[in-house]
From TrEMBL:
Protein name per UniProt: Type 2 DNA topoisomerase 6 subunit A
Family: Belongs to the TOP6A family.
UniProt source species: Halosimplex carlsbadense 2-9-1
Residue ranges constituting the Topoisomerase 6 subunit A/Spo11 TOPRIM domain according to the UniProt record: 191-357
Catalytic activity reported: ATP-dependent breakage, passage and rejoining of double-stranded DNA
UniProt entry keywords in alphabetical sequence: ATP-binding, DNA-binding, Isomerase, Magnesium, Metal-binding, Nucleotide-binding, Topoisomerase
Length: 363
């Protein structure tokens, strides 16, 4: 059933296509301007407390064959999305790539899924409409929540009330593609613990960490999907719950934390919607590697390059992160969450996390 949001999204898309035609009619070469999506073009918005794109822009223009093809693909995609909204249907990013093969102009077809994904991001930025409101879904997320939270989810088969402990199995409640279809009804949670790996998430649930500490354990599933970040932000903003992020101790995991807290570079246009600036990093920290003498692996060349890049990344230019990253470069080591098991299977839930959460003022 179509909604006012669907109608608004469709109108924004049609307005964008009309701009191309108006440029044609006015004798101008059609073009589309979008922010340059690089870390050198993100800046801190002190009013919104998030990282956003700066003033530097790139231009898609029909002055070149390449630019004309990009605008052609944008027009065909807008037509497809408008019809999808009319029909109250949805599709995945992967399906869009394959669907383009049926379009009647070869030059409008995508050569790779990266190309179609990037175009959807471009359309989000210039239309100021989220892809979820286009009814576009990622292929899968798989992220789950376990903890003392009662919610109501709107589905195509009606509303469902679900308790994220009592009404789910060990796997937890699976986060839907659009978490804004969720209404929070009741909760006894004290904080949110976002966990990078499935193995550590399973350890926490098996040991009853969510029950003992009234924690909402959110599995990030590696680099977290937008739906996971959106739900995490809503849990913080609407339920006033502290958010902590528990990852491996390596530069790629710090970027996972960064995407939850600071927002990612490629989705900086949605930072206000996705990022939780108040989120705190709980580990594994480089200083934990030293303090607990954890099992480690040596840093690879790519690890070192990534750490040095993070020292130049404005999102990581704080005293805390500079100290931790420089320490890691000095010890030349990285460590996984599961390395805490060297002290026993219960160490992470009985000792490490409670002590860290107490230090942070969460417990």
């Amino acid at each position: 059933m179509s909604t006012d949001t669907d109608a608004d999204a469709r109108a924004q898309l049609i307005d964008l296509a009309e701009e191309f035609y108006e440029q044609f009619e006015g004798g101008d070469v059609p073009k589309m301007r979008i922010p340059t999506r690089t870390k050198s073009n993100i800046e801190y918005d002190e009013d919104k407390n998030v990282w956003v794109y700066g003033d530097r822009e790139s231009t898609r223009t029909a002055k070149t064959i390449s630019g004309a093809e990009k605008l052609l693909k944008a027009t065909y995609t807008i037509d497809f999305l408008a019809r999808q909204l009319d029909q109250d249907r949805s599709s995945t990013l992967r399906e869009l790539y394959y669907l383009s093969e049926s379009w009647d102009v070869d030059e409008a077809q995508f050569s790779s899924q990266d190309e179609s994904n990037n175009l959807i991001e471009d359309l989000e930025i210039v239309s100021e409409v989220k892809r979820e409101d286009f009814h576009m879904r990622p292929e899968e997320s798989g992220a789950k929540v376990m903890g003392p939270l009662l919610l109501r989810e709107q589905t195509n088969r009606g509303d469902r009330e679900i308790h994220c402990q009592d009404d789910v199995g060990q796997g937890g409640y699976q986060i839907p593609n659009n978490p804004d279809t969720i209404e929070f009804l009741d909760n006894d949670a004290e904080f949110v613990l976002c966990v990078e790996t499935g193995g550590m998430r399973d350890r926490l649930v098996e040991n009853g960490f969510d029950d003992e500490h009234d924690a909402l354990v959110v599995h990030l599933g590696g680099q977290p999907a937008r739906a996971t970040r959106r739900l995490t932000k809503r849990l913080h903003d609407e339920l006033d719950l502290p958010v902590t992020v528990f990852t491996d101790g390596d530069p790629w995991s710090y970027r996972i934390f960064g995407s939850v807290s600071y927002g990612s570079i490629k989705s900086a246009h949605l930072s206000e919607y996705l990022a939780t600036p108040e989120a705190q990093f709980i580990g594994v920290q480089p200083e934990d590697i030293v303090e607990y003498d954890l099992p480690t692996d040596p840093l690879s060349d790519s690890d070192v390059n990534a750490l040095e890049s993070e020292l130049e990344d404005p999102r990581f230019q704080t005293d805390y992160w500079e100290e931790q990253i420089e320490l890691q470069l000095e010890i030349d080591k990285k460590s996984e969450q599961q390395s805490l098991a060297s002290y026993g299977l219960d160490f992470v839930t009985d000792t490490y996390l409670p002590e860290r959460l107490d230090e942070m003022g969460v417990l």
